[in-house]
Amino acid sequence: MDTEVQIKSKIISCGCDLLNTGLVVGTWGNLSARIPNTSFIAVTPSGRNYRTLSVDDIVIVDLDGNVMTGHLKPSSELAVHLEVYRNRPDVGAVIHTHSVFASACAVARHFIPPIVEDVVQAVGGGIEVAEYAMSGTKELAQNAVLALGTKNAVLLANHGVVCCGCNLEEAMTISGLVEKAAQIFIYANQITGAKTLSSNDVDLMRDFYLEDYRKRQGGMDNGKNFIKKC
């Protein structure tokens, strides 16, 4: 089980990976993770480059957004992160990106249907679009959680993507998978159109992921006990 310092270090490492893979640019995007065996969240500070962060720059907040430790202001999208954690006890990490193809779908306000097997397994189906609201607002947070439901990714209209997982590793994987799905969806529609998987196939693949594949990836057991399992 990771310590608070290890969680902070992973957040910084994941932030740099987001830059390296082009899922974010500059200081945009944000990451957070639960601190095991506490009710606290570690979150990136607002407006800081991931490459220059130290573990002391990562802010610790409670589920009401009160800063417990840290000298910097937490991410401007903290409300979205906290709303996810309050409504999804199975979630151990949240990542918000502005990746190009997924953001294109968000700007078009177009749902990404369940078309790619690995994405369906990890996300739990197609990727919905949350109703538009201004960045940083409670309304945006509520819209995001409503559209997210029990899945692991949601598009924010005219904004970007929120992905979550049992831990940072899974949330990072899902961030990449969502971008891949968006790219495939856009390209497929330039050929003959993307063909969706059946709801039965989606359910079977999701069950396989939760019951088998995720465990082999070091994830949690059925999405219920991430603190003990991740």
Low-confidence runs of at least 5 consecutive residues = 219-230
Helix content: 40-55%
CATH topology: L-fuculose-1-phosphate Aldolase
Which shape, going by the Cα principal axes?
globular
Number of helices: 8
Q: Would you give an account of this structure?
A:
With 230 residues, this protein is α+β, with helices and mostly antiparallel strands. The chain has a single domain (4-220), classed as L-fuculose-1-phosphate Aldolase, CATH 3.40.225.10. It is built from eight helices and eight strands. The protein has an eight-stranded mixed β-sheet with strand order 4-3-2-1-5-8-7-6, sandwiched between helices. Helix 5 links the parallel strand 6 (129-130) and strand 7. Helix 2 (78-87) crosses helix 5 (138-148), helix 4 crosses helix 6 (168-188) and helix 4 crosses helix 7 (199-216). The chain is globular and about 55 Å long.
